[in-house]
Design a protein that fits this description.
The complex is a heterodimer of chains A (468) and B (595). Chain A is an alpha/beta fold. Chain A is built from 14 helices and 19 strands. The termini of chain B are far apart. The chains are: A alpha/beta (468), B alpha+beta (595). Chains A and B meet through strand 5, helix 6, helix 7, helix 10 and helix 11 of A and strand 1, helix 1, helix 4, helix 6 and helix 11 of B.
Chain lengths: 468, 595
Amino acid sequence: MSVYGLTYKGIDQVKGPLVIMRGVPGAAYEEVVRIYSEDGREWFGQVLEAGRDKVVIQVLGDTEGLDSNAMVKFTGSTLKIPVSDEMLGRVFNGAGEPIDGGPKIRADDYRDINGAPINPAKRDYPDEFIETGISAIDGMLSLIRGQKLPIFSESGLPHNEVAAQVARQAVVPGKAERFSIVFAAVGLKYDDVLFFRRQFEEFGALSRSVLFLNLANDPVIERITTPRVALTAAEYLAFDLGMDVLVIITDMTNYCEALRELSSAREEVPSRKGYPGYMYSDLASIYERAGRIIGRPGSITFMPILTMPGGDLTHPIPDLTGYITEGQIFLDLDLHNRGIYPPINVLPSLSRLMKDGIGPGKTREDHKEVSDQLYAAYSQGTKARELVQIVGEAGLSPREKLYLEFARRFEREFVAQGFRERRSIEETLDIAWDILSILPEAELTRISEKTLNKFHPKRRIAAQAEGE
Amino acid sequence: MSELVYEGKGVIVHIKGPVVEAEGMRGAKIREVVYVGEEKLIGEIVRIEGDKAIIQVYEPTGGVKAGEPVERTGEPLSAELGPGLLGQVLDGLGRPLEVIAEKAGGPFITRGIKAPTLPRDKKWKWTPLVKPGDDVIAGDVLGTVPEGSVTHKIMLPPTIEKAKVIEVLPEGDYTIEEPVVVVEHIGGKEEVKMYHKWPVRTPRPFREKLAPVELLVTGQRVIDTFFPIVKGGTSAVPGGFGTGKTVTLHQISKWADADVVVYVGCGERGNEMTDLLHTFPKLVDPKSGRPLLDRSVLIANTSNMPVPAREASIFMGITYAEYYRDMGLHVVLTADSTSRWAEALRELSSRLEEIPSERGYPAYLPDYIASFYERAGRIKVQGRRDELGSVAVIGAVSPSGGDLNEPVTQHTMRYVGAFWALDKDLAFKRHFPSINWLRSFSKYTGGLREWWIKNTGHDMMAYRDKAMALLQRASSLEEVARVVGEAALSDENRLVLLSAELIKEGFLVQNAFHEVDTYCSPKKQALLLKTLLEFYDRARPMIDAGVPISRISEMKSLGLLRRLKFVPEEDFENAVKEAIAQLEAEISSLLAEVR
């Protein structure tokens, strides 16, 4: 017996976003249902547990007004959205329905929002440098085409600006085409959404972007579907239409909180801080959809934004994210308070795919060594700064004073730049050499003789003098 | 609903994620493999209640309905063991990813795909070693075939205790489905093919377990010298994200002096697996001169692939490792990450509504971890031959929040012989491998003094102790310097800091992506450490003579010493001599100045 297309009247129990029905044999796991109340209101949900005796449905949207006489229709299909190139330039809600007043899109295909895992043997290894024009990122945390690199931030920090600047400036050197943008707002304030829209409009990206909006006052449960719907659209644009897609999803913290809420409604055993034990796998099913595929031209580069509760890097949300993503861009309250934009603290930041995306033929041959040396030297500089708090600047050795000065110039000249300033990778590396050259050469242990000879400003001057 | 039940099949009554309940399953066995639903998804029975079976399904269950059939196979989850494993890239259930891609017709993994691990049509060059009339026992070698970089021994499977050979195929090319030997035993005649199946959760038998004593050379200085692992040993690599677990494991898989490497990517990033798949065919094994892939089995069950298969993948991997061990080979198994594996266990346990213990993990977590690490070891193989084989197990641990007190790290520590604690602060400084020398340990150092003397001519363990003492002294001095500033320390103490810094920069820091530095032979390690230690001994008299530390730290030869590690093996001895000569020259001129 099948209930396909069949409609049942009457539900047993409503518990938060969960609806429980009995006597509905043959409902399929993860099948989509539509629920109609007697006064004509409509909900839409998904089967969480399919049993001969009991069916549990998760309802998307607010369950207010749902009554025990509601009609439940089983659609026989899992949650799918229509996809086509008409999505570009449009705005949708978290369930993938247009909310910009425009017509429904003509579907080329319907895709399951959960996608399917990319076969690891069919992945193409990301190794193409994306120039974002931001020194801290390009020089020390290079973004690679097909990478997933989140921004770890805190409330009040300019993560939206950083993401918008990346979206505006990102190019793969040597490629004419710009990135298409898939933007998903998860539980965001309306003015944040407006900021992004204005930005996209300003640099003329609106016609090559797709927006999925779940605002702070939209149903919490739709936060679960929003990232998946957005990535389904991105997969289509990237792997069917061959576009390079930059996916920005903000704020993943709201997603995780929705997940926790749902888990607690389901009465599951919680793991750390009440988040469900499967949050790692759940986040992976989202983040791992980024990448490149052998034999297909497009790519998904993924930049999720999350705000760390209390700025705590060990909180389960940033912690589990960091274990899945290929690095992180860490925004720092202290740098922000000192007026540095972008306030990227490079020490806890990382790009795992950088090593294969930079170097001769891609960026410049000294890139890796310069980056390593900047890390080592800046870390010495911050150590010296801590020391100043205790012993005062007078108590420092000459070497420590030098590193202190290095850290200051590094933050002011290398990290700091304008919201509209775009630096090429050559400019970025030249600034780096300029700052590094205040250190004695014996301190530049991460840089080889060969590279020193070719790029160190003092040696270049010396070489020039000799030539003359 | 009982009218729907028929012989050998049950019906689904409930689906909740990867856990499916089926009725009409009387006679089913725990851990038996079943095919679930119309699409025949692979599952395993984890609990039996009367004629009900609780099944964990290895594939996504979306769209499965109550009332669909469940088909029994009568077999536990097993690994296919035979020629054709090396060079393979498999998922957590042992299905080749290339075959999955072919059958799925695209780059995404679809459901219900059946793909045997070993290729059925490939022919192998069989050389028999027995003849009709021979008596054989389990583990005896019946013949060999060349496979990748090893000679693959076809052995009498452990399931046949003893038998008499009655037929043997002559030398020639055969597929694994052809019976190459026919034996007769109490139970009657039995055909022996080049492959057999073995249940993954059962350790393979051996004659005797021996103490592991031989260094497993990894070419990673901080590991080989400071916290070594031995052939047949176990080690854990805990560290928060970004501390370099995966790179450490990749390095070991690439450079470890083993015959066979099994790499299990368990619940980790897809692109990391791709990285391995790209580099392994290109890198050449220094011992055999063949691509590294020829000695490797890669298992990829990435974080977005189904969770239950993640749980199975580790057992699948260790079974492959044991199989090659039984041929008398040295095998290294690296698992990244065992935490994801434990989390898969937690997830399944919670779906089964078991009572949780610490942090939601089931109470049997320690037994589970032990059941994996205890399958490592150095053993005398089965059969009538005097051969030793070993499986070394190296597991990454991903403690949540970087907290080493969490259950998986704590229970793992109890079962491993070496512990490489990765340190976030070192990683932030880009000091890689970020193995913290104060918090790591290795229980194997004691037995290795002989090995180093025999193989390098150096008493490396003495150097190690000396370097360790220096590092420890430096660490407590740093504590002081953090409060009073380095300038307030005596020059003598600052020399200790400088010398320790030299050991850190010149020896401990090793660049995995530098063509020379990525691998360092034991000989080079010994000479390098000896040379760097000499710096302190030679500089010490200068302090007494009144040379200021600032002058000592400016010596050009320090830069040379720091970069010695980048010198290729063949020029190394000369470079050492030059560096020492320059050091001596600088020292005497500094001494001359103060006199």
